[in-house]
Amino acid sequence: MTDTPTHCPYCALQCGMTLGGASAAPGPGRRRRPALRVTPREDVPANQGGLCQKGWTSAELLTVPDRLTTPLMRARRGAPLEPCAWDRALDRIAAEVRRLRDAHGHDAVAVFGGGGLTNEKAYQVGKFARIALRTSQIDYNGRFCMSSAAAAVGRAFGLDRGLPGPITDLARADAILLAGGNVAETMPPFMRHVSAMRSAGGAFVVVDPRRTATARQADLHLQPAPGTDLALANGMLHLALTEGLVDEEYIAARTSGFAAVRTVVNAYWPARVERITGVPVPHMREAVRLLARGRRSYVLTARGAEQHARGVDTVTAFINLALALGLPGREGAGYGCLTGQGNGQGGREHGQKADQLPGYRGIDDPAARAHVAGVWGVDPAVLPGPGRSAYELLSALGAADGPKMLLLFGSNPVVSAPRSAAVEERLDALDFLVAADFVLSETAARADVVLPTAQWAEESGTMTNLEGRVLRRRRAVPPPPGVRTDLEIIAALARRLDAPGAWSADPAEVFDELRAASAGGPADYSGITYERIEREGGVFWPCPSPDHPGTPRPFLDRFATPDGRARFIPVEHTGAAEDVDAEYPVRLTTGRVLAQYQSGAQTRRVRPLAEAAPEPFVEIHPDLAGRLGIDDGADVRVTSRRGAATVRARLTDEIRHDTVFMPFHWAGEGRANLLTNPALDPVSRMPEFKVCAVRLEPVAASGRPPGDGAAAGPDADRASVIDEPGAAREPSGASR
Ligand SMILES: Nc1nc2c(c(=O)[nH]1)N[C@H]1C(S)=C(S)[C@@H](COP(=O)(O)OP(=O)(O)OC[C@H]3O[C@@H](n4cnc5c(=O)[nH]c(N)nc54)[C@H](O)[C@@H]3O)O[C@H]1N2
Ligand SMILES: Nc1nc2c(c(=O)[nH]1)N[C@H]1C(S)=C(S)[C@@H](COP(=O)(O)OP(=O)(O)OC[C@H]3O[C@@H](n4cnc5c(=O)[nH]c(N)nc54)[C@H](O)[C@@H]3O)O[C@H]1N2
Ligand code: SF4
Ligand SMILES: [Mo]
């Protein structure tokens, strides 16, 4: 076969790679499909010839032994999943849609999408929900990922586009402050840009409760208690003011609303912020000085600062800091959020979100409805309004007023959703669950019908990386026999449901329709074509016409707000939704390790990755472990108000004494999300993955400690209290 230039199937860095070396014809048995050879591309700015271990081993995903190659169906609930023909599976799904919709209305059927889907698929999933199912009940896993940063950026700058410019700009910065990101593990080649900056004299400041692989490479590491970043950012802005480091000229020329922020941060005097965060005042002062010493610095946030019940306000506090220092809207400087999933950026633009139409349009906006309905060939009146956000949608499944059926494309919420034992109960309360996946994920295993789909190297389409650069995913091999693409599945279902409009399964045709639907919207792709992407090595949106060069740095002249100014918004620290107390005295935070990806559905099946990171664990400081009688390598039971998990103890002095950390990549009794708190941000509806209160106990060698089972069932009353953002929140102790 000829070599195929494409991009990695995993994260938002979308490292360039070339796939080659195998025969184009699928082997006789799927197990014997020859593995493709992965070679990193030097010509892609994001990775410049680098890949992480996940990228290097990505071709093994195509040949995992338990790859799905035929639809599976249960005759009834409780019966086993059995292979069946495509027509039977699709007919059954269409029949269930009709039955449930006739009985309960259009919102009886829900859709859940993913930020790993190509732009074409994300667009088609959203369109399918709105005009084939006519349901308002659609959202996606990006709600758990980027939603707080997206909302804060939209609020401040009027347009949500991850990084403010090409990633290669970072190398020329004076300083980068990264709050809540462990890029050395979550996107390792990103560190090349950081290293280049440091070699040129720039400073790297990391804000993380753990001394991570990333923090170890920093010039300065601030180690706050989880859930206190907002206070930290306000405190840094306070220091910038007292030290005369704010850029008054820039503030006057390019922003609005600073006076109110100045008043609020007045109360964040250094000693108070040190008490709240645990970060010594000299460290805060040093961080501010490093950021302010030139005017070419970046403030970046990732999930550590964002996945909180006050995530939007926390990001806002960091944006306020960046604005006060005069960074956003300058070339080679600014605020940026690090998008996570492969198409985390494009996946949040084209209509998978509960409140959104393609092109990042609001589903409430009459002009947007008219435009998109025109492209779809329907009356705007048939388009539903906004639906429930991801966690609210999952929580409503099977409830009296909730959806009775769910179609799932590209997520594994049994492992990745907060308080996941309750989510499992909701999935089981459905009349009918459909999952499209290429492996039998923990969620697909609970479905009534499972549809086997093609994956990255077997399909083409576009992905928008963390820079906002639209890239081509190219097909290197055909899917195994029996497998269909998501676009083929959606088209086949739309036809069975007599949906209006065109339902092409050809990615190029779907992309052309997406371009038309996005035209004139904030995320305007209308000038982008597959040919241009190939020729130019990617195109930055917005790109409103074929002769438009694309927009690598969107805010140089003006922000996308009505008056062209960036908005300062005053925000106050209130602390985590769930504080520690005598019963649950330790803070738990969660996140990632290098060798596993997300719910692990993919990476747990790739042998070298499973060997590198075989099992769940909890990181504990030796002092805390000593107090609790926990030895390194011993089994520990971690309990929160939502449930309990049993995992291996990993003792490390790289974490704060008062905090423990669990990665969330595994299913079963070590699942971090048995513990997490689904308190939601009032604006973004992001759950508080990054902090909750737990207690830890050693598990006797003979088994579990006395007490109830591994997944304590949440009682409904507490659930409704905790779901109310802020309701379970107590004032944060100044002594933490
Ligand atoms: N190996 C690997 N890489 C991935 C992924 C993966 O699953 N595995 N997933 C991809 C996706 S979708 C995403 S969203 C990104 C996520 O990328 P990151 O945001 O870098 O990943 P996390 O590990 O979730 O969180 C980063 C850090 O936040 C810290 N943290 C926890 N609580 C707090 C807090 O309150 N404040 C601060 N400042 N820091 C805190 C954690 O200690 C952790 O080191 O990674 C992408 N890349
Ligand atoms: N405790 C805790 N929980 C978290 C987080 C955390 O930091 N802590 N992070 C959150 C974040 S940032 C994220 S992004 C979520 C991610 O969590 P999930 O949404 O569960 O993400 P994945 O594990 O990537 O699940 C993708 C599933 O879809 C399949 N799939 C992949 N590509 C395709 C495709 O193109 N088509 C179809 N049909 N299927 C596909 C995969 O095989 C896999 O089963 O987890 C969230 N959960
Ligand atoms: S950093 Fe992300 S895109 Fe690059 S090889 Fe690793 S997983 Fe793939
Ligand atoms: Mo994510």
The CATH topology of the domain at 81-145 and 343-469 and 478-517 is what?
A: Rossmann fold
Rg from Cα? 24 Å
Per DSSP, the total helix count is 23
| Integer average pLDDT | 93
Quick recap:
Helix content is 29%, strand content 17%. It is α/β, with parallel strands linked by helices and 736 residues long.
Structural summary, described in words:
The chain is of the alpha/beta class and 736 residues long. Helix 3 (119-133) links the parallel strand 6 (109-113) and strand 7. The longest helix is centred in the first third of the chain and has 19 residues, at 86-104. It is globular, with a radius of gyration of 24 Å. The chain starts with a strand and ends in a 13-residue tail after the last helix. Mean pLDDT is 93; it is low at 27-31 and 704-736. The structure holds ligand MGD (2 copies), iron/sulfur cluster (SF4) and molybdenum atom (MO). One ligand MGD binds next to helix 16, strand 17 and strand 23.
List the helices and strands and how they pair.
Blueprint: E1 4-7, E2 16-20, E3 37-40, H1 53-56, E4 72-73, E5 82-83, H2 86-104, E6 109-113, H3 119-133, E7 138-140, H4 147-157, E8 175-179, H5 183-186, H6 190-199, E9 203-207, E10 220-222, H7 229-242, H8 248-254, E11 255-256, H9 258-265, H10 270-277, H11 281-292, E12 297-301, H12 303-306, H13 311-324, E13 334-337, E14 356-357, E15 361-362, H14 366-376, H15 390-396, E16 405-409, H16 413-416, H17 420-428, E17 432-437, E18 449-452, E19 461-464, E20 469-473, H18 486-496, H19 507-518, H20 530-536, E21 539-540, E22 566-567, E23 586-591, H21 607-612, E24 617-620, H22 622-628, E25 635-639, E26 644-651, E27 659-663, E28 677-680, E29 687-688, E30 692-698, H23 716-723
Parallel strand pairs: 6-7, 6-16, 8-9, 8-12, 9-10, 11-22, 12-13, 16-17, 17-18, 23-27, 24-26
Antiparallel strand pairs: 1-2, 2-3, 4-5, 4-18, 14-15, 19-20, 20-21, 23-30, 25-26, 25-30, 28-29
Helix pairs in contact: 2-18, 3-18, 3-19, 4-13, 7-10, 7-11, 7-13, 14-19
Residues 8, 10-11, 13-15, 47, 51-52, 54-55, 187-189 line the site of iron/sulfur cluster.
GO biological process, one term: respiratory electron transport chain
Biased composition (Low complexity): 700-714
Cofactor: Mo-bis(molybdopterin guanine dinucleotide); [4Fe-4S] cluster
